[in-house]
Amino acid sequence: MTFDSNAFLIIFTGSLIAISCGFLGVFMMLRKMSMTGDAISHAVLPGIVIGFFVSGSQRSLEVIIGAGLLGILATLMIDWLRKKARVQLDASIGITFTLLFAIGIILINLLAYKVDLDQECVLYGEIAYLPIDSWITKSGLNLGPRITWLAALNFMFVVGFIYLLYKELILTSFDESFSSVMGIPAKGINLALMSIVSYTTVSSFESVGAILVVALLVVPPATSFLWTKSLMPLLKLTAVLGILIALLGYYLAYWFDSSIAGMMVTVAGIFFGISVLIQGKRPFWAKGTSTVNQPFGI
Amino acid sequence: MIKQVENPILEIHDLTVSYDQNPVLWNVDLSLPGGNLVGILGPNGAGKSTLIKAIMGLISPTSGYVKVFDKPLNDVRARISYVPQRESVDWNFPASVLDVVLMGTYGKLGLFRRPGKKENEIAMKSLEQVGMSGFVSRQISELSGGQQQRVFIARALAQQADLYLMDEPFAGVDMATETAIFQLLKEMTEAGKTIIVVHHDIHSAMNFFDWLIMLNLHLVASGPKELVMNEEMLRKTYGGKLNLLTRVTDLIRQQDFNPLKS
């Protein structure tokens, strides 16, 4: 088989998105907030529409800022409903994101004459068109696919964020009140995490779509968690799974002539299913008492 | 019987805390001297945990204020440590015993910096003090309840604070460990630290604490053990719970504890 640069680009971009989502997903899972990721990925819609309306372009900074703000708003709303209005977490998530998503749809309809944007584009996305959507500078220089650049930028943000705030993320995930007593701003860290999740959602929605972003946020971390109980291996395994999912997803989609993003998530689901079966069947003596010597790797 | 002190290490002024308009703590007004082992006693639902959470600013009071080391709370956070109830966290979290104890050093490290050799040594020493050095690399999900409790105490020790607030640190801990930890806390108070412990066992409270706070929505008593540990205060605190009271009087008799003598 000859080297297919398009295939490589799609797999490469897919891996970047899957790893970014996976890393964030690990921390969302540790905070028992996986479904908040789901909420955010839908709640950013009005922000995208408003950003689009203001700037007139789907690729502008305003869109990202709008989405980021809406992501934070969704987080705050969920938190407020839960703590102040005493609604259960799952209910407050359901109320918040459906409401914001509905507002987004109404906005799209109201502004339809001005906005070249539809729900499908946000919900599904299509990574297969990535090679034909190049980033061409004014002087006519072709720098390669735009979405790949976006995904790479996002990947760097996510890795940088986790690297810099590693210990704060761990501490606030494990024991929020202890960190507050120490003076580490648990709420601020939480909002920072939520904004980077919003940003990741927006920069990925063109390629894999909002629904499938959720799958990438939840499934790979949950799969890794079945295999390991320490954080560093958990992150590494999530990254490896991300690459495998992109690789297998692409070739299976190619084979069946189907959606790449859809196939990626199906592969993720299969990995998860296999892990559950293996871990469920393993006799108790094979699990044993773990002897992990490395603390967090810091 | 509320004894106020000069130059208190902790001053609580007219503190009222309510959940949903229902006050759970009324007008608590007390001051504590430094270098003491302080016990908070009271029946279930008396507001013991609420009181220490309000001291640490985890719950905002309806009225009143708290001053620690004669300063507002936010200026002295690095000097305050907290041992939460064991059930307050998920022990399936992917971390080892050492990881959790190292968390105690995060506050002093500040943003972006990682714990290094020095922090590791502090953590190891803290684990040694609670007798858990054999479990350094054990996953926290594989610990027993008492061991988890000791890990939490080690984490607080690693913080090297001056004021420690502990919420039921002896729940699920066996007698031998309890005595050993009390001994450790005693040594710490001798070194000038102040430790406030929410406690439910009146018997061991009589043996170990220097200063007692008795709480039942209102502040019933706050003062040196010899002054406040008497039948009247206990009846006011645990009021009406006859069964318990008989047991308490029995205990007092066994201990040959006569408040009139002192």
TrEMBL record, chain A:
Q: Does the keyword Oxidoreductase apply?
A: no
Biological process terms in GO annotation: response to zinc ion; transmembrane transport
Please give the start and end residues of each transmembrane region: 6-27, 39-57, 63-81, 93-113, 147-166, 178-202, 208-227, 234-253, 259-278
The main location is membrane
Q: Which CDD domains match?
A: TM_ABC_iron-siderophores_like
What topology in the membrane does the UniProt record assign? Multi-pass membrane protein
Q: Which domain of life is it from?
A: Bacteria
Entry's InterPro entries? ABC_BtuC-like, ABC_TroCD
GO cellular component terms listed in the entry, alphabetical order? ATP-binding cassette (ABC) transporter complex
Subcellular location(s) of the protein: Cell membrane
Q: Which UniProt keywords apply?
A: Cell membrane, Membrane, Transmembrane, Transmembrane helix, Transport
As for family, the record states: Belongs to the ABC-3 integral membrane protein family.
Matching PANTHER family = ABC-TRANSPORTER METAL-BINDING PROTEIN, METAL TRANSPORT SYSTEM MEMBRANE PROTEIN CT_070-RELATED
Q: What is this protein called?
A: Metal ABC transporter permease
UniProtKB/TrEMBL annotation, chain B:
Cross-referenced InterPro entries, in alphabetical order?
AAA+_ATPase (IPR003593), ABC_transporter-like_ATP-bd (IPR003439), ABC_transporter-like_CS (IPR017871), Metal_Ion_Import_ABC (IPR050153), P-loop_NTPase (IPR027417)
In this record, what's one Pfam family? ABC_tran
Q: Which domain of life is it from?
A: Bacteria
Residues of the ABC transporter domain: 10-242
Keywords per UniProt: ATP-binding, Nucleotide-binding, Transport
Q: Which residues cross the membrane?
A: none
| Molecular function in Gene Ontology | ATP binding; ATP hydrolysis activity
SUPFAM superfamilies listed in its UniProt record: P-loop containing nucleoside triphosphate hydrolases (SSF52540)
The protein's matches in PROSITE patterns, at most eight in alphabetical order, are given as: ABC_TRANSPORTER_1, ABC_TRANSPORTER_2
Similarity-based family: Belongs to the ABC transporter superfamily.
Q: What is this protein called?
A: Metal ABC transporter ATP-binding protein
